[in-house]
Structure to design on (395 residues):
């Protein structure tokens, strides 16, 4: 089994590592550009990078039971290690994804094989509190795909689960409207208790997928996974995740999706079963657009069960200004970690603008207002976050 998290850097690492990331980005982009004019020996490299400056007026007090658990997005992008608290904190984060795609290899008259590998390195530097950040080296994708027909293909290895809109995109900020993940994909920023695994089933190991001609296209994915993954990246139980997603594209302006998954993460006498069901909507009307997702997660722990619900919506409008495209946007997220308990919801309001220089390069400015309930005592808190991010993708 592939190791999900290869390296978790200690606080004593080199604090100027984000600058090294930038230097590496420049070098890789120059290399990619230089190779573009020559015939590749069979591997097509791509580079995605993101650098971000974050200003917070205060930090949420994370739930102590979740310290160090499932924090790879939160630590590297939105906040320091769980349990810390500081006012008026400034941080810098960097991310680099090295993506390798093999060219199609014909294995028979009607079957083609290709490989996909996505290695992500992220690091952050905090200028408040203890001054420490976090670093991660993570395998996001490493799979082989067998292309049999438009309607039936196979993937095997490790892959981001095809659940909803965002999880397949994941941290590719250049292809997503806002510069922070929806709360349902990054609930740890608020220290929420939504189970030992992520609110969304993040990784899977084997997929059957395809596309059939219905309206503008009907796409489906069936997937299985390795169940509960420990912090060391090892499979800690014998049960597996399975689920699927269906996406109907009515035309170029409207797409409607539905996702579902089930996992039995029971270990020994400990019972833990999870069931997810979700729906999503993508609308484009001229220069305006809308993305929305709704997910319900039910957890059965034998003696008790918990149902959590989260949804978000974001809208934008693109306006050409010379060679530049300005895209103001607004978004709203809400997450309820236990629908049987009152007054425990958390939400976020976002507003900002994207400066789109090209499809591969954009600058994002945003202001986010958070209101959250701390699981430890049920108290309501709020904080604000201003972000400045630069994203680009080089093929």
């Amino acid at each position: 089994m592939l190791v999900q998290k290869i390296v978790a850097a200690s606080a004593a690492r080199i604090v100027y590592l984000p600058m090294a990331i930038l230097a590496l980005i420049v070098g890789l982009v120059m290399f990619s550009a230089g190779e573009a004019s020559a015939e590749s020996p069979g591997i097509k490299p791509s580079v995605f990078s993101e650098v971000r400056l974050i200003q917070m007026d205060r930090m949420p007090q994370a739930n102590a039971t979740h310290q160090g658990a499932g924090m790879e997005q939160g630590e590297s992008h939105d906040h320091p290690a769980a349990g810390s608290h500081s006012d008026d904190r400034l941080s810098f984060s960097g991310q680099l994804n090295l993506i390798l795609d093999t060219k199609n290899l014909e294995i028979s008259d009607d079957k083609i094989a290709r490989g996909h590998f996505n290695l992500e390195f992220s690091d952050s530097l905090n200028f408040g509190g203890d001054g420490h950040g976090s670093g991660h080296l993570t395998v996001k994708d490493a799979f082989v795909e067998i292309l049999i027909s438009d309607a039936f293909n196979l993937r095997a290895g490790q892959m981001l689960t095809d659940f909803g809109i965002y999880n397949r995109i994941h941290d590719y900020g250049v292809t997503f409207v806002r510069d922070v993940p929806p709360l349902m994909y990054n609930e740890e920023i608020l220290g929420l208790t939504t189970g030992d695994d992520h609110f969304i089933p993040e990784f899977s190991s084997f997929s059957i997928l395809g596309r059939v001609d219905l309206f503008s296209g009907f796409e489906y994915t069936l997937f299985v996974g390795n169940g509960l993954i420990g912090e060391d990246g090892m499979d800690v139980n014998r049960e597996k995740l399975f689920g699927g997603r269906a996406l109907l594209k009515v035309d170029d302006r409207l797409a409607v999706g539905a996702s579902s998954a089930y996992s039995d993460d029971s270990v020994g006498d400990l019972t833990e079963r999870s069931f997810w069901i979700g729906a999503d909507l993508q609308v484009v009307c001229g220069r305006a657009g809308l993305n929305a997702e709704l997910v319900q997660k039910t957890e059965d722990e034998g003696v008790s069960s918990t149902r959590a619900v989260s949804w978000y919506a974001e809208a934008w409008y693109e306006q050409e200004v010379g060679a530049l495209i300005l895209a103001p946007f607004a978004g709203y997220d809400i997450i309820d970690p236990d629908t049987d308990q009152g007054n425990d919801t958390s939400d976020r309001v976002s507003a900002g603008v994207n400066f789109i220089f090209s499809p591969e390069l954009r600058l994002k400015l945003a202001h986010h207002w958070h209101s959250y309930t701390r699981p430890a005592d049920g108290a309501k808190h709020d904080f604000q976050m201003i972000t400045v991010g630069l994203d680009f993708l080089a093929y």
Q: What stands out?
A: The first helix runs from residue 17 to 35. The helical segments are 17-35, 72-78, 166-169. The chain has a mean pLDDT of 76. The CA atoms of residues 50 and 391 lie 5 Å apart.
